[in-house]
Design brief:
The complex is a heterodimer of chains A (410) and B (486). Chain A is α+β, with helices and mostly antiparallel strands and 410 residues long. In chain A, strand 5 and strand 6 form a beta hairpin. The longest helix of chain A has 17 residues. Chain A starts with a strand and ends in a 15-residue tail after the last helix. Chain B is built from 16 helices and 21 strands. In chain B, strands 12, 13, 14, 15, 16, 17, 18 and 19 form an eight-stranded antiparallel beta sheet that branches. The longest helix of chain B is centred in the C-terminal third of the chain and has 18 residues. Chain B is α+β, with helices and mostly antiparallel strands. Classes of the chains: A alpha+beta (410), B alpha+beta (486).
């Protein structure tokens, strides 16, 4: 069978590059056949899932074809008692979570736009949300993958068991590679039980220094939050800490965090279900808002410097801007609508310099052309660029997979 | 120049870099390096060099490369898959002299160490401050961090906490041409491919790691341990499934069958009934752990546990774990020889697989003791044999291989934590197809195009990295019939 195809239109564009041809395969075999056809005809090619992270990276230098994964949306295997699932790339996160919830399980990943974000896209973009604080990132939950290589060959790596060290680690190599090493066709994840109870403590209007001290105190007190997010609010941070697990543990940890808050002469409250829902929805709105979104990274201890030297300058030129920070991870996003492209670009470059000085980075996850004109999506070339080039040359020697979209011009 | 003269010349140059006492070429002295923790299949290296710094490693790699010698990196030599087994004509590069802890940063929770640092010494260095390094292979008192990185080592507690790959934040790598590359860093998600993930578990085939930054964890508030005794592994296996199905994520959940218990008793004097023992750790915040522990004990009872033992103090807890951790070596008490296997199966298949192993062993007249990380289905079947009986070692090896193939048939893996190394390369083709292996080979070749690092490991046949795309030019070794082309 050959994949369904149609001419490309403006809505199929990847960062402004519009393909001539769009493939919509219904099976992995069809996808492989489409990739082989592109290899034969020397077509450049990008892979598109739900399109939630299409703004990430630089515009491809050329784009003849797009392969959409929407027809690859099956749960291949769910083994509840082994807590693993194998899914096709185009399955949306919320569809997956619905299936898993029926068995009291979940994939412990909560990136934005769950209705649209797909398994393959989440892997390719290394997408994540607040749960990363406890459960780690995609690389900590992925256990296997099958990919379609640039030449159309289908290769598997990893497996369907949580513990497995056989062979080179293809699954983790695909994480965050934005489709420049191959199409993520199927993904195997380890799963976690749905928590019996959850509870959020909100510490509003904290300085970055106070937020950091409180989190260090919580760490010293051996608390183990499932999710931690700090939302910018005026010049301060609203810090939400969520505990999950069995009811007695959730209750005790919340109590102990409140004790620490009192000891630090701060204010906090345990939110009821509605208020907790509202806080995390506010978080989601920040992550999902704006034509400009920057991903910030720095060592967690540098929170105050990050807020002062990166978050504040980035927010200044944004209308309706917001920041969602994950202070235990050293990651965060600043999102909004730039009133002026050059001003937002200048802010991004300044923030990037500040983060680089701390050992971190800034990546544009979305930006209008006016910002991109004066700010690179990735910043300085990675220090291991030579090895990355070598890897790209091995897996995509003709540089046909989203050429130029990835870091270092890959 | 003849091979011996060439080796002597190379030894002279290496000695000039690392110092004469750290360059070993004497036939009797290199004997130590003929094998690692897997003692059969010994190969004598031509030369063993023990560099003391990144700069020395760079020079050593350059010299070996210029002399066309394969390089076999080696840590403490405790690996169980022959990952550090020399190849003919090679230079073994031992990292045991590089054992400094370079930097501790408890603010951000990491430590930067040299590769020769012993796993347990990392936790010891930060333990007083309330931190530890999570991956805990049974050999943690002697195995090195560099070796852990090469093998992506696990341990009893990786069900909850993950493997080495989940705990390495950065690494300094000396590549084939002597280039020094830093991967990862102090902040997460640096732009670019996750080469650190490709490095961890690459079994010494992409370069030599000279520094590693490890994530540290705060010690959990409490740990609760209990031991449950079951009439057989059937009930024990069901209890494991029941505990996991109840939404409990134990820090560790280990099982031993009757033969393994018999061995452990002989070694430690523990009073355990020789049926089936399950040992579980729960750790974390106090109230959570008390709840989880109580639930797990209820489930174990409901699944047929005949006895539950809760250690009365830390000493008794350590003794229970000693019984488990000493199981490999203890098997020596009940059998003249044994082979350690390391396969993975879906945990729900544990009871079935154990019965199948028993039948397979019976059919060939051998015994298998089973010790395993039950939570993640990682089996360590210990195949017992007597090397003095002609043909028995071969039968044992074949049984071990058949067990691994059965693991693959159940949807599992040929190795959960020991690595593929030299020992299991032949089984890779049972688990992966030609395109899978070729793709992995391309990843390896992206790092080491000349395949000078640890050749002959992981992949089922000796192959070369091949040329860059373009007109086909056979490699000299290929025309000589020594290798196939990729």
């Amino acid at each position: 069978m050959t994949a369904a195809r149609r001419p490309g239109t403006g809505t199929d564009g990847v960062l402004g590059a519009v393909p001539r041809l769009v493939f919509v395969p219904a099976t992995v075999e069809e996808a492989a056949e489409a990739v082989r056809e592109c290899a034969r005809d020397k077509l450049s090619l990008a892979f598109v899932g739900g399109g939630t992270d299409l703004g990430l990276g630089s515009p491809p230098s050329r784009l003849d074809a797009v392969l959409r994964t929407e027809g690859l949306a099956r749960v291949v295997e769910h083994a509840p008692s082994d807590q693993i699932v194998s899914v096709e790339a185009g399955l949306s996160l919320s569809a997956l979570q619905r299936t898993l919830a029926g068995h009291g399980q979940r994939l412990a990943l909560d990136p934005p736009f769950p209705d649209r974000a797909t398994a393959g896209g989440i892997v390719a973009a290394n997408a994540f949300g607040p749960l990363r604080a406890r459960y780690g990132a995609v690389r900590d939950l992925i256990i296997g993958v099958s990919i379609v290589r640039a030449d159309g060959a289908v290769a598997r790596g990893g497996g369907k068991v949580v513990k497995n060290v056989a062979g080179f680690d293809l699954p983790r190599l695909m994480v965050g590679s934005l489709g420049t090493l191959g199409l993520v066709a199927t993904v195997n994840f380890r799963l976690h039980p749905l928590p019996e109870a959850r509870s959020t403590v909100l510490c509003p209007v904290l300085s970055a220094e106070a937020a950091r001290s409180l989190l260090v105190a919580a760490r010293s007190a051996q608390l183990e939050p499932a999710a931690v997010a700090a939302l910018a609010s005026g010049g301060a941070l609203d810090l939400g800490v969520r505990f999950e697990g069995f009811a007695p543990g959730v209750k005790q940890q919340g109590d102990r965090l409140l004790d620490l808050v009192v000891k630090a002469k701060l204010h906090a409250e345990r939110l009821d279900e509605a208020a907790a829902g509202a806080f995390w929805e506010r978080h989601d709105r920040v992550r999902e808002s704006g034509t400009f979104r920057a991903r910030l990274s720095a060592p967690p201890s540098a929170l105050a410097a990050v807020v002062r030297d990166a978050v504040a300058p980035l927010l200044a030129p944004l209308a309706g801007g917001g920041a969602a920070l994950y202070p235990t991870l050293g990651l965060g996003f600043v999102c909004g609508d730039p009133a002026s492209g050059p001003a937002a670009a200048a802010a991004a470059n300044a923030a990037r310099d500040a983060l680089a000085a701390l050992g971190g980075s800034l990546v544009l996850a979305a930006a209008p052309a006016g910002v991109r004109a004066a700010a690179d999506a990735w910043g300085p070339a990675p220090s291991a660029l030579a090895l990355m080039l070598s890897l790209k040359d091995r897996l995509d020697p003709e540089r046909r997979l989203a050429p130029g979209r990835f870091a270092g011009g890959l | 120049m003849g091979a011996t003269a060439q080796t002597a010349e190379l030894a002279r140059r290496m000695a000039a870099v690392v110092g004469a006492r750290n360059c070993v070429s004497d036939a009797s002295e290199v004997l130590t390096y003929e094998c690692d923790g897997l003692s059969h299949g010994r190969v004598r290296p031509d030369l063993v060099v023990l560099p003391g710094s990144t700069a020395e490693v760079v020079e050593v790699v350059r010299l070996a490369g210029a002399a066309g010698r394969p390089i076999v990196p080696r840590g403490s030599g405790t690996g169980l898959s022959g990952g550090a087994r020399p190849v003919p004509g090679c230079v073994v590069v031992g990292l045991t002299r590089m054992r400094r802890i370079l930097e501790v940063n408890l603010d951000d929770g990491w430590v930067r160490v040299e590769p020769g640092v012993i796993n347990l010494d990392v936790s010891r260095a930060v333990g007083a401050a309330g931190w530890y390094y999570a991956p805990d292979p049974s050999s943690q008192g002697v195995c090195s961090i560099g070796g852990n990185v090469a093998e992506n080592s696990g341990g009893a507690h990786c069900l909850k906490y993950g493997f080495t790959v989940n705990h390495v934040l950065g690494a300094r790598l000396v590549c084939a041409g002597g280039e020094v590359v830093d991967l990862g860093g102090r902040a997460p998600d640096a732009p670019g491919y996750d080469l650190l993930a490709a490095l961890v578990g690459s079994e010494g085939m992409v370069g030599i790691v000279t520094e590693v930054t490890l994530k540290l964890l705060r010690k959990p508030e409490v740990t609760r341990t209990f031991l449950a005794i079951f009439p057989s592994t059937d009930e024990g296996g069901n209890a494991v499934s029941g505990i996991i199905a109840a939404g409990i994520l134990p820090a560790a959940i280990e099982m031993m069958d009757s033969l393994a218990i018999k061995a452990a008793k002989a070694a430690t004097g523990l009073e355990w009934p020789e049926t089936c023992v399950l040992l579980m750790d729960a750790d974390g915040p106090a109230a959570e752990v008390e709840h989880v522990s109580a639930r797990a004990i209820e489930i174990a009872r409901a699944c047929g546990a005949t006895e539950i033992r809760v250690p009365k103090d830390e000493a008794e807890r350590q003794l229970m774990w000693k019984g488990r951790k000493s199981a490999f070596a203890a098997v020596g008490r009940i059998s003249p020889n044994y082979m350690v296997e390391d396969g993975v199966i879906p945990r729900s298949a544990i009871a079935r697989v154990l019965r199948e192993i028993e039948a397979m062993a019976k059919a060939v007249g051998l015994r298998v003791a089973n010790v395993f990380h039950a939570g993640d289905g990682n089996l360590h079947p210990l195949v017992l044999y007597d090397a003095r009986v002609p043909g028995e070692e071969e039968r044992a090896a074949k049984l071990g291989g058949d067990i691994l193939r059965m693991c693959v048939r159940y949807g599992g893996s040929i190795t959960g934590e020991h690595g593929v190394g030299a020992e299991k390369a032949a089984y890779m083709a049972d688990m992966f197809g030609p395109d899978d292996l070729e793709t992995m080979q391309q990843v390896r070749c992206a790092f080491d195009g000349g395949a000078i690092f640890n050749p002959g490991k992981v992949f089922p046949s000796t192959r070369l990295c091949g040329e860059k795309p373009g007109p086909y030019r056979p490699h000299p070794a290929e025309t000589a019939g020594q290798a196939e082309r990729w």
